[in-house]
Structure formats: C-alpha cells, structure tokens
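Retro notes
What went well: the complex prediction finally ran end to end.
Inputs used:
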Amino acid sequence: MTNKQMRRWLLGVAGCMALLAPACAQELPLYTKWENYTTANGMPDEKVLSVAVDDDRVWAGTENGLVLIEKGKIQKIYKPEDGLANRVVTGIAVDKASGDVWIATFGGLSRLSGGQFHNYTNLTSGLANDIVYGVAIQDEYVWVATTAGTNRFNTHTGEWAIFSEKNAPLNEPWSYGIAVAEKKVYVAVWGGGILEYDIAGGYWKPYTDPDGEMEIILFKNQGLIHMIVSNIAWNKDTQMFWASTYFGLSGYDGRNWHNYLSTDSGLASDFINAPKSRGDDVWACTDKGLSYLNFKTNTWVTYRPNAKTGHGEIVITGPDKKVTTRETPTSLAHNYILNLDFQGDDIWVATATGLSHGIKESTRESNKEGKVHEHTSVSR
Amino acid sequence: MRAELTIRLQRLGALTGFLVLLGGIAATFGVSRLQAAQASTQTAENASEENYLTPVELKFSPDGTKLYVVCEDDDSLLAVDVKAQRVLGKVKVGHKPKDVAVSPDGRVLYVTNEWDDTVSEIDAKSFSVRRTLPAGWGPVGVTTDRTGKVLFVANSVGNDVSVIDLTAGVELKRLASWRSPHNLLLSRDGRRVYIANMLGHLGPPNEPPVSELTVIDTASQRVAERIEIPGVLELRHIAEAPGAKGGYLLVPIMRPKNLNPLIQVAGGWIVTHGMAVVKVGETNGITPAKSSVTQILLDDVDQYFAGTNGVAFTPDGRLALVTASEADIVSAIDTAKLERRLRQVPAEELANRLDSAKEIVARRLETGANPMAIAISHDGRFAYVVNRLGDSLTVVDIPRLQVRGTIDLGGPKELSKLRRGEQMFHAARFCFQGQFACSTCHPDNHIDGVSWNLETPQLGRDRVANRTLRGIAETAPYKWNGHNPDLETQCGPRIAKFLFHSEGFNSAQLSDLVAFIKAIPLPPNRHLAADGQLTPAQEHGRAIFYQRFCDTCHTPATHYTARISFDVGTATKYDTNGFFDVPQLDRIVQRPPYMHSGEALSLEELWTIYNPHDRHGVTSDMSKEDLNDLIEFLKSL
C-alpha cells in the first residue's frame, strides 16, 4: 500500500466514524422512568447517603437508618434499636460470597449477618475511628475508610491494621471512600488525593497533584484533578479508576489521566460526591444532577428534576457539544446526588430527598416518553 | 493495715524485680516462641503417653454395615464392623481429630483435625488418606452437602465455617458462625446446614448467656438465620426429627444459673441440663424467620444428668436418645410424650421445670465413661454410644431399651493416673445430686465464657469470670484473689465446700485430678507463624509491651504472669479488695471475657474502657495504631 492509498483509506475510515458517531449518540440508553422512595412512602429520612445492590435486594443508607428494598417495597428499616451501630449510614458493602452486609456509620462499623448485627467500634475493636465513611470487601479483608485513617480488618484472623499518616503516604487522615480492584485497593482521601495499595506487595503509592505545590492541576490531563477526593470507583472492564473531587472528575487508565470539568464537558457540576463505572459507562453524582459519560464516544447525559415543571430533565451533550434536552414525566427525587449502584440495566440513586430507581427501557420505549427539544451546538 | 500493705508492696517489688530479671535472662538467651510452642506440644504428648484412643464421634456407612469412629488422642479413624462388633481397620489422620463426614455414596470419608487445621480425605475402600484439605482454625464438626461436592467445616477457634469445594480441593469461603462452633448437621432435605455453637454471645456479666444455632442455606452458601437460644451454653450435637414427626431439631443444652450464688447448689437447680426444641422457620436471611425455641430439662428434682451431649432419633422418630456425658447415662426420650409436654406446659415455664423428665424419659441406661456422640442403626434396632474415656462403644437394644453390650475399641486396659484424673474431671457424681462436673464449666478444659457468682465477699452481687485450665501448671497461685497456692487446695476442699457441696475427692482422687489438670496442654497458636517469627505488627507490639513495662506484672519467663496479685484499678463497686491475681497471657486471645469481673469483652476494652486512670499500664497516651499492634503481640503469646 502506497502512502497515497494509505491516506485515502484512513480518510475513508475517519469519514465512516464521523457518520457513525451521531448514530451512537442517538442509540444512547436513557433512563426515562423513575420510581422514588421518599419519606412520603416509607423512607425513614429524606437524605439517602449510600446505596448498594445485592441481586434483588437494594440496601440504602440514610441519615436515620438502613433500609432494605426488595420487590419494589421497603421490606425493613434497621435502626440502632435493632442493633445497628448508628443511625447515620454512610456506606454499604455486600460480601457477595457470604451475603453479609457491612455498614459504615457515624458510630462505627456494623456487620449484618443472618439477620443479626455485630458492631465494631473504636472502643471495642481495632477500628481507627467511629466516623466511618466507606467500606469495601477484598476477599477475607474488610477495608474501612474512617476520619482517622484507613482500616483493614482480616475476618479470618481478627487482625486490624490502620493505615494513616504515620505509616502510609497520607497527607490527611480523612479517608472517604474505598474501591477494590483485582490487585489493588484504592482509597479516596479528602485533601490527600488517592492512595493505591498493592495487595501482593503490601505497599502504598500516592496519586496527588503533580507539582506538589497546589491542590489542583494546571494542565488538563496533567494528573489527579484535585486533592480533595470525595470517593473512588474501579472499573474492572476498562481497568480504570475514577475519582470524584469537589473540583471535577478524574479517570486514570494506568498511563493517562482523563479529567473533566463542567466547563469543558457535559458534566453537570464540578462538585461530585461519588463516581461509579462499568463498561464504557462513567457516572458522576454531583450537586446539580446525575451525570453520565460514555467514555468511548465522549457523549454526556445529565439527569435532574426540573424545578419549574417537576418533571425530569435529560440533557444530552454530544461529542460535538451539541446539546439536546428531553423532558420525562418522572424524575430523580432531587438533583443533589450522593451515590449510585447498578442492578442489571437499572440504576439506584441516593439523593438528598430520597432513593431513586432509574428503570432502563429500550431506546424505542424511552423515545416515546417525553418531548424532545433540539438546541444548537454550544461551545463550552 | 497500712503496714501490712507496705510489706505486701515490698514483697511485691522484690518479687517483681526478680521476675523482671528472669524475664530479661530468658530474653537474653533467646527463649524463642518456637521453643515455647514445642514445649507445649511435648506436654500434650505426655498427657497421652498411655496411647488411649479417646473416641469422640461416630458415623454409619450408608449401607449400615460399618461405624466410623474418630479417636482424638490416637489421631486415628477406626472402622468398626457392626455385625461382628470388632474393629476392622485403622487409619492415621491429623492431630486431634474431632469428627467424620461420610460422602453420600459412602466412598469418601472426611475427618477434621482440630490441631492441624486440616481435613483428611480418606478412601473408604482402601481406608487410606488420599489428600489433606486446608480448613480454618480448629476444624471440628463436618458434613458434606447432598451432592457430596461441597464440605462444610466448623472452625472452633476461627469462629467460622469453611465451605470447601471438594472437586478442586479448595476453600471457597468462610461464613461467620459465633463462638466456638462445634457440630454441624445437614438437614434431611439438604437445604440447610445447622451449626451448634458451644459458647454463648459475649455479653455483660450480669446478664444470662445467649447461645446461637447458626443456619446456613446450602444453595446460596450464606448464613440464612441466627437462632438465639437464651439462658443456655454448650450446644454440641443436633438431631432432626423425621418429617412425619414435625422435623423439629433437638439440641442438648446446659442452663447455667451463673447469676445466682453458687452456694445454692445445695438447694438444687443451679446448673440444669436438657434440650432445646427448635422449629426452624423459613427465612430469606434478612427478615426474621418464624423459628421457635423451647427448652425442656432432662434432670430429675433430686438427680441431675450433667453433660448433655449427643442426640439421635430412631428412624421412626418415636424415640430420641440423649447422652449425659458427665453422668455416664443415655436417656431415652419418648417423643410423643415430649410433644405432649410441649403442648401442655407454657414454654416460659418449661425451661426451669424439673418435673418434665419423669414424664418424657422412657429409660435411663448406663454407658461407659464419658459418653458423647450417638448413632442409631438404619433399622432402628441398635444405638451405639461413644464412650470417650472408656475407649468403647455401648450398644443399646432399642426395642428392649436395655444395654446389649460393649464394643471394645482397643487401647490400654489399665487406667493411668492421668486417665483416672481425666475421668474425675468429667464425673458429676462428686457434686451434690450430680449437678455438674469440672468439665461442665470448663468444656474442652477451657472456659464456658461466662462469669459466676462464687464465694466472693459480696456474694450475691459480685461475679467473677471463669478461667481456663489450659497450660496452668506453672501459674500458681490460683483463683482471682490468688488465695489458693496450689491446685490441690483449689480442687480439694474449696471445690468440695463451695462448689460441689459434697465430700469431694479423696486424697488419691485429688492427686489424680491435679495431675490431669497440670497436664492439660495449650492448644496451637494460630496467630504465631510456624517458625515462631513475629509479624511486623507483632514485633512492634512486643517493643511496646516492654517499653510500657507490661512485663513487670506479665513476666515472660513465667507464662507472662508475675504470679502475684496487683491492683490495677479494675475493682468493681462490689469488690472489697482491688488486688487480683495477674492472669497468664498464654493464648489470651482465646479466652474472653477479660478481667476478674468479665466486663471487658475484647482485649481492646481493657485499655479503651477499663483503664481510665492509667493503672493497668500507662496507656492513655497510646495511639490506636500502637494499641492494635500491642494486641497483635498479645495474640502471639
């Protein structure tokens, strides 16, 4: 193949891809049907801080107890009088092997097993602090994010290890979230960036601002977007981690950083409480709605309730920055989003005023749902 | 008073200095942890120098022609020809075997080795070990699922259940049980595995114990339910009634009235023995099941049957046989009368009524020494009872409800001093009305995990935690107040007067008993690496231990006890004296609750809650990281 032939072939491929890209955006799966669980229909508190799905069971952590939803109904609400360590439930992790549910609370760590709670607190166990923000399971280890560092609890031996500024590269002790990968554990540290723990080697590697002088990066994909990391997620399909900060979204594929701000993408807000990711999907729980990124096509979708109409609003931002807005009869409970988990194709979203169930419908069905408003391209 | 205290403190100081010096010498000359572990093993071997078999469990082959008998002191499994009533073969397994499971097709046997943390897989035809599978810490009870592809193993030290894939020979997962899980039972429909936990939940010392029957769903291999059984301890065996009889479970129990003054033994009713009748409800593992638990006693008003242990139903479910391991009795229960009794008497009354046995017990039959597990032939004609300290099986003719004979399993015919002592230890006949034996409150030569209302100055209010008997030979004095200088004093007149309310042991018996207790070994330490090397956390904790002068009272050279009383500020409002015997720290992690009062439910609580004035070491300035490492070091002892 000559250079000329090669150039023609490449131009042809590029032309086809350009034609296909809008088509991909058109086929974007949308959540047009929402069911909300609020205090009006049985939730013990407005604010839902965490959510975790275990097959048919959905666990929601609120400011006033742990909620179990199954078959579309609130089956049980657990409170301290039932044995829960504290009413404020900030994180939930289900051990898929044992079925035990580990619960991060503002009064320690709880394990729910066979209907009974067992609690671990700073006074009764090796837990670093009773303010627990996150929990994750790695084989027989339970990783716990606390305000005094990260704990690793070995359920087989009973050993508690604490990783804090004393023995790990933490600039700050406030661990906010934990994500477990196949060979690594990632910790989101508020003000301290991201810590990566090598499971086999038993050592830590920090991801902080590259120049070491400022909390925020100076160039777009220079490194972690900001040191204040609120949570972290691992995508086993793409082998990437995604970090939510209060100043944007960061993804890292092992070689390159992929950073997003609301000013240069379809991200609803730079204030992000938590990320979630699988396949090409990246979700960001922001204070101004739930944002979705198709990492492959760079297409964004943001879900939020329309304060004026009370309906749902879907804002689609294509890779060409063309914005399309749709309206749906139902919406998320609130635009302040705290957490999210997947249940098959559906999503469950923790918001400031309730838990929202986003029901995935086929593209054809979802297109029937609401009105579509075309907007001209917006350069952001 | 002040002068007395001064002298006491001077003595204490001198002794402490001497012991610190000893500790230093030991450390200087490198008395390694490995040597200590080896020493403990040697003691264990000495204890079984007579090569007794000590059978503890038995199971039938699927065709009913053989009985497989697990012998814990012989580290072996025996095959017994049921018809010929003789031992057919023996296969050596791991250390301290505890239970055997037979695969559904009868071709493979699985024996748990408690001290090796393994399971021996045995070819039933060749009767040889074909592979050794890893398990958790202290594997005891074992069962396969219906397919024979999955093995469930109760780990008594790890407090969990290993789920093992038998095809790959790997552990799939561990499910948390509760404290000291013991025996397992696969339900008749194969949907569940039941786990009997020998010790109760850790709780406040002024509340009755609560024990747990853990239920695992075999399909999901998850814990489906935790059935609480209030006021009881020492769940061991489980039997399921035939479906036609309701499918309920019988679980032998001990009901300790540990909150009442133990001097009430003379009034009866302090330690009672019976069964929990459990009807297991359907559960999804989350919402509470509608399981019901009723307790019924098997004691008579003036005669107790201590050590309820093994249980089995006849195939038709008309009878249930229950062993009383400390009374050398097997009781035959008429289940129709049992069911009638359950209907007639409210459950809240039944647990404390001593008039049930005369209604429901069809016959009491004498067995050999220390009867434990029981198995009934498929045709329902015979029951076989394992006599742990008799190295034999008692054969019961069920239709006639009489003992037909005894199968001798082998082993020495002479009773050694240690063996006589061990029989004494397990014999309730020395106690008033046979209410309890030493082993009642020291199951497996250890602790029952509760605090007892003993002969303290504030009798009736004050309670003291039970103390282990493992590895205590060199830790005198005894009792929390340190008033008993030796075991002869502890086990002689004190036991007779305050506990047994009887004449107790004569001098020869006492000598045997003390010899046995002194020979009780420490179990292996799973927190310490096989080569004795400490982990970085343990090494750091060790440095803290010495930096904080913990070794002053917990002297390493003498099992980490200075063998003297100290006041470290742990007295309760009922204590008239703050001085308490310094407990040895060997295997300290295996014996919560802590402190003389049993108030500290974890090692952490000793310092986070019960050391407010820094008298139990200066620890208030200690970081949580340091405290965790100190505890990791303590676990290694």
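What we learned: Confidence is low (pLDDT under 50) at residues 10-26 of chain A.
What to try next: split runs per interface for comparison.
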